[in-house]
Amino acid sequence: MKLTTAQIQTIDEYLQRSGVTYWDVRVELLDHFIEAVEAKLTTTTLSFDEALMEVTIAFGNDIQERHLINSDRTEVIFSGIFSNNKGFKEVEEEKRKQNRKQYLKLLVKQVKENFTRLQFYADYICFALMVYITFQYYTKLGFVAVGIWLTVDIFRTLMVVGKYQKFTRDSLRGEMSSKVISVFLGITINMFGFIFAARGLEAKQLFWVMLSIILFYPVIKASLSIHKKIFNEYKKYKEIVSV
Amino acid sequence: MGNSKLYKGSLHTIILKLLEENGKMYGYEITQKVKEITNGELNITEGALYPALHKLEAEDLLDVEVAKVDNRLRKYYKLTEKGSKETVNKLKELENYIRNMQVLVNPNWSIE
Questions:
Q1: A58–B45: do the CB atoms touch at under 8 Å?
Q2: Dihedrals φ, ψ of A79, to 5°?
């Protein structure tokens, strides 16, 4: 028996209330719930709510009945059936763990991919030269230049994604990718703080700071590319279901 | 027999074997296929299936294909090249395990 749009909406809202808030996790569970509930309604005499509860239990959630005591403590009133959402949390937690592993692989792959593109080489050489020249002549200017260059790069990516305000709250992969970018943005903003710290730096220390910035640049660029890719995938799937 | 803990360690192998035989499958389909093949004896719980699928995907053993079905998205899983090779290894491992258990538990019985 096919579910109605209203029933599907009910399941989607139920999953969200049960803590499956990330769209990229929920979309798979929603499909499973719809299929499983439809099958139960076809092959058994269960009601929609009962079928929903059975599928919830199959996900490893514990169901408990809750009761309330009336104000004069003379009667116990049944207040409803609640799920502890343990199973849903486990699915989400495992997905988060696997996403982290996948992200590192993606990062390495993206760095390699960037090094096959001429445009990236041009960009990288410009950046490295800018860092080298500015640091050679005036240390403070070097930190300012690096800070501005990276801030512009990061904000350009965030502007593309920024149109979809919900993206990072809605997507588990998007949330993780945003966190990585936030760390890089934090480091970049701290570049400006180095202006004052640089006063005491010796030439050798300065050389290592400069080299670290140059070597780290491809990783930052790769993380920005990944963020855009994850966003484009999210946008594509959102558009598919809205058509 | 129901859901014996003995099956837990073989879940990845079961999933890989099913995908090897059926090409691409989605989560609910996998649970139903296992039920059908084992005449309802073995029941893969959803709470174990999805973490296993996500783990196999992260290990690059499975690839994901998303399709629109009845105005919703469905995630299909299929074996990658690495996954196909791993399936052969895992099945061999499982076969050896069954053989060894046989020898230990009932030396006169054989699966041959």
A1: yes
A2: -105, -10
